[in-house]
Design brief:
alpha+beta, 4-stranded antiparallel beta sheet, hydrolase, single chain, secreted, 6-stranded mixed beta sheet, Rossmann fold, about 290 residues, signal
Length: about 290
């Protein structure tokens, strides 16, 4: 499942959307995507949760507390924690805004600070114990070296989760292990990769999906062989986690009707070369 979010105001295509990069990211690792609409009932989220094998909270630009994206994620997050507590393995991956959302869902408040990290590719500063978690435990040596020394992780966020906030907030530092950090343009030391101690919940402040699938000619995205491998590693890891979940649709027809393949993406053309899947969350039908 990939969670949608509200479109920019007055968008003619639909009230909510999912960037195609996230769909391709999932499909590249051998999985299919079910779009999760926002602004729906608790029953809708309970039903879709019972049929999918994991969730991606994607990047974007909506409010982390008041948006329909955040409200929908709160319901799904509660369902995921309850499922994992009863032995129903259910993974979540938060990317950029989705990474920040993970902290808000745990802390119940927004503690993001400005770090001015729009459109910049960076290497990662790994923590001393980064291999103790699942996410980077089996990272190949050549990719570790690339991620340490080359700008293979693309960042495009104004706000971030400061390391000093992590250190001072027990709700966060007892729930998440920090795997890497970075320093923003304005000097803010922030968390860039983390995962939960107890749950299969993973967060990256950077964009693994863009190295392969985003070709905006004005963006500083690394498309090198090593950067491509970073994308492939993250996608393969997360889908391997999702394969451990046994949720399923009742039949092939129901599954087929739920897939994002039923929606035609809208292509923006140059200079961004981006495409999005648009929906109308005020209606039960996908547009």
């Amino acid at each position: 499942g990939v969670l949608a979010q509200e479109s920019p105001e007055h968008n003619i295509h639909g009230d909510s959307y999912i960037m195609s990069n996230y769909v391709k990211f999932v499909e590249m690792a051998g999985a299919l995507v079910v779009p999760i609409r926002v602004g729906e009932s608790v029953k809708y989220y309970q039903d879709i949760f019972s049929k999918i094998n994991g969730i991606i909270y994607p990047g974007g630009a909506v409010d982390l507390v008041t948006s329909e994206y955040a409200k929908s994620a709160r319901i799904l997050h509660k369902l995921s924690l309850e499922a994992n507590d009863r032995g129903d393995y259910f993974p979540i991956l938060g990317i950029c805004l989705g990474f920040q959302l993970l902290t808000v869902l745990t802390l119940k408040e927004n503690v993001m600070v400005n770090c001015s990290e729009e459109d910049i590719a960076r290497s990662l500063d790994f923590t001393w114990n980064y291999r103790q978690g699942k996410l980077l435990q089996n990272l190949p040596a050549h990719l570790e070296e690339a991620m340490r020394s080359s700008p293979v992780t693309y960042n495009n966020h104004q706000y971030c989760f400061a390391v000093k906030s992590y250190d001072s907030l027990k709700k966060l530092n007892s729930f998440y292990r920090v795997l890497s950090t970075n320093v923003g343009r304005n000097g803010t030391h922030y968390v860039s990769t983390m995962e939960a101690y107890k749950y299969p919940i993973f967060g990256v402040q950077w964009h693994p999906e863009k190295n392969i699938f985003q070709w905006n000619v004005h963006s500083h995205i690394d498309h090198s062989e090593e950067a491509v491998e970073v994308t492939q590693y993250l996608a393969n890891f997360f889908i391997a986690q999702a394969r451990q979940n046994k949720h399923r649709f009742a039949d092939l027809k129901t599954a087929s009707n739920a897939l994002i393949n039923n929606v035609s993406p809208s292509f923006s053309g140059a200079p961004s070369f981006a495409s999005n899947y648009f929906f109308n969350f005020t209606s039960n039908s996908i547009h």
